[in-house]
Amino acid sequence: MEEMLIFGHKSPDTDTICSSIVMSDFQKKLGKKVKPVRLGEINKETKFALNYFGFDAPELINSVSEGQEVILVDHNEFSQSVDGIENAKIRMVVDHHRVCDFNTAEPLYYRAEPVGCTNTILLKMYKENGFEIDKKLAGLMLSAIISDTLLLKSPTKTDEDEKAVKELAKIADVDYMSYGLEMLKAGTDLSDYTAEELIALDCKKCELKDKKAKVAQVNTADIPEMMKRKAEFEKAIKKDIEDNDLDLFVFAITDIINSNSQAIVLGKETQIFEKGFNKTLEDNTAFLPGVVSRKKQILPVLQENA
Amino acid sequence: MEEMLIFGHKSPDTDTICSSIVMSDFQKKLGKKVKPVRLGEINKETKFALNYFGFDAPELINSVSEGQEVILVDHNEFSQSVDGIENAKIRMVVDHHRVCDFNTAEPLYYRAEPVGCTNTILLKMYKENGFEIDKKLAGLMLSAIISDTLLLKSPTKTDEDEKAVKELAKIADVDYMSYGLEMLKAGTDLSDYTAEELIALDCKKCELKDKKAKVAQVNTADIPEMMKRKAEFEKAIKKDIEDNDLDLFVFAITDIINSNSQAIVLGKETQIFEKGFNKTLEDNTAFLPGVVSRKKQILPVLQENA
Asked: Which residues of B touch A (CB under 8 A)?
């Protein structure tokens, strides 16, 4: 039996990394030969969670060969997936995003639910199958949900996510509020990243009609401090736009304490952003009060106004 | 709360019709306001099942308006779905086919499994939610699985389908072998259909690379009897090819007793079929021993050789 590879999206975040490890545990319980892998560097928040609960980071891969059996977690769009995905054999997807830019030649397992985090769905699957979740793994699943829902403050959060957090915190035996704040704060220590790294850390490519865009996001506890590096960011973004022939780049600097975002917006299609948010960019930036979720508050606005 | 519409694919078969009724019952148990509908005429096999277990056929619709909330069962490809699907709000999909030509603007529930029938998945969902299945509904679900797996003889059948059939037969209190044969035979009474109706009865559009194709299928207990109408079928197929600008039309006449098919193949791309099955068409036809499943034994062959 060949080894199936399990991975989340490029620019991996905590949910993507934890999902690949958790799904790997799940598949092993089903008797499958699998290996979790990742498609990019581990960020500091994820590193904190892995260290805290005693897990190693999955191995890095850049592409898969033709016919490789794979399981996708926390994404489905080919543009966010591994190089070579078009010719892989996709056996399963577990995800909480819209379905787009995805197709298979054969029937498969596909499980998506409109909840705040992939691990909320994974928890359900463990229960449906009567599988036990050990203390360490519960901690990892908890970390993913805290990350995706910004400690239950994001509008993407559902009742199921909230229940899952409480249930998993009990199994993991941690105080999720204090652990969660510590983990999120670990992720906001961005001082030793270059501007190039910061705009790539959590960055999603997306197609807006016939336009090519990227929406990147970083979490911070101090927007003004981050904005001191605005000129650096602009330079890095302009280079990315040129290198990748992009029409639009939105970089959202999100204040996870006060739940606002400052956006730096560049490209020849910035009017999509301006129209969508009814804002005039000033010096390439705009302040977005109450906006913390790329999936729920930024991407749909851009998609509707492209 | 607006009413959500639930429907399967065009050219509805027994699984598509039963899935829409069963999913409607499931959603009502969840407290949702829903209505099962259908996208085409009910075939005789389905009519037999509906009559046997005392259900009315869902209402016929031809299109949905913009923003209409919908649930898709037994299909996902937009080309097989209702007119206007691109602008509907797809809230859920339950299916057992590959994912293709499908996308949404928002996250949704998507549940697909590589089993022989949608109702095998629906049975699982009832159990996961602790919902009871009444006698009549069990009969409907049983009928769908018998239909899609040709009474468990199709290569698309999985162990889960077989278990589901046995479980549902118990609840429905029927002998599934004798009921199943009777139901399948009811579907093979094709004498009062015109050739045009027969090639449209269970017909799937598909894209083969940049080529447009249709693969239609009818079940029979007597291939030679059906082939007496070959000239009629060819005329109807040629008209469909012309009207819809098709590159290929495959009409499979499937002997459900002996598990073989006779294919009538027309269009300017018949070499895709000939290459795929390693057959030279004689007088537009070829005999395909052991071939009964469009999904597993015909479509993949055409897709790989386009």
From this structure: 96-114, 128, 295, 300, 303
Mutation to test the B interface, candidates A110, A113, A120, most B Cβ within 10 Å: A110
Structural domain of residue B44, as residue ranges? 4-185
Q: State how beta strands B69-73 and B34-38 pair.
A: unpaired
With contact defined as beta carbons under 8 Å apart, do A110 and A140 qualify? Answer: no
Across chain B, what does the average pLDDT equal?
A: 96
Q: How far is B128 from chain A (nearest CA, A)?
A: 6
Q: Rounded to two decimals, what is the model's pTM?
A: 0.89
Select from B15, B87, B98, B161 the residue whose CB has the most chain A CBs within 10 Å, as the one to mutate to test that interface: B98
CATH classification at residue A228: 3.10.310.20
Binned at pLDDT 50, 70 and 90, residue B274 comes out as: very high
Tokens representing residue A67 in the block: 């016919």
Q: Residue B107: which of A109, A111, A112 has the nearest Cβ?
A: A112
Per-residue pLDDT reduced to its tens digit, A208-238: 989 999 999 999 989 999 999 999 999 999 9
Give yes or no: residues B35 and B158 share one domain: yes
Both A154 and A180 in a single domain? Answer: yes
| Domain endpoint, select from A185, A210, A244 | A185
pLDDT at A1 over 70: no
pLDDT band at B267 (very low <50, low <70, confident <90, very high): very high
Q: Is residue B190 part of a domain?
A: no
Q: Tell me the pairing of strands B34-38 and B59-60.
A: parallel
* Spatial CB neighbours of B205, under 8 Å, sequence gap ≥ 6: B79, B80, B212, B213, B214
Contact A162, A134 (CB under 8 A): no
- Predicted confidence at residue A257, as pLDDT, reads 85
Q: Are A206 and A65 contained in the same domain?
A: no
Looking up residue B167, the CATH number of its domain turns out to be 3.90.1640.10
pLDDT computed for residue B1 by the predictor:
57
Q: Are residues A181 and A214 in the same domain?
A: no
